Amino acid sequence: MRTSFHYQGVQYAAKPGAVTCTTQLYHVLRHDKLLPDDLIWDDLEKFWKSQGDGAFFVGDPPTDRAGYFKNYSLSVGTSVTNWAPNKRSKTITVNEANRRNLKSNGWVSLSMGNRLIPTGARAPLSSLAIEGVLDAGRRHRYLDGKGKIRLGMKDKAQLRNSISLSPAALIRRLADDIHSEVPDIKFNYFAMHSSCWDLLRKMKEEFTRVDPKDLHCQASPTRKVKASTFLLNASTKVVTDFLESGRGHVIKDAASKKVTAGEVRRIVYMGDDGWGLDNLMKQLKLNKAPGVEEECRMQ
User: Are 72 and 56 in contact (CB under 8 A)?
Assistant: First the structure.
């Protein structure tokens, strides 16, 4: 159940791109020190850490306003040649390779979870097969959504540890690795997307109040404010209000709650398949289960 929740959640959050754009904006506000140090978006930072910088930035995270815009443009699929000083054509050049991808975490859990789904013939689960899953799971932790090694992780990704364990110890190692992946794969990507989407809707409402002439230049007798500054200030206000209202740790709070048997004893299910597992298995038999190696495109 956890692996399906995670895999489908990543796909759900990746396609609209709201989580990616919001993470880029949060980086801008943090780097430019527009948010108070004690105002932290816990849920987004956990999501960002689990995905790595490669899911949001082309190269190193940008550090100035020109870089912020360039990174966003590249991350949605434009080519770096659009910034060439001798470029004459006004046509935007596209480079699909620049588009950012989210990745599915918990490789070991996903691999073993797929073996529980009846999808046809498969190789026996031998000691050699388990060793391969464990080694692939270790290497996968250092890859980004495109299957490339994350910045600064090359040495760790290429390091190959020989796994020479008895069958009993190998099963124990497998169980330990699956257990260690639980925090990542139980993260609620559905809620993360909803939070980001709600924030972007609030920003849209704030921007519609802006006088169009302010987008060119907001002038005063002593200074001029660039449009980028004007919009960043508006964004800062929306994000600050959003986080001060407690929306920055919704997923964290929900994950820490414990449900007792007494709280659910009065719940009445229609039928004898409360989790819908029978129907789920029917659907899985009709449709091939998703493989963990598939890419999850942002757009």
Answer: no
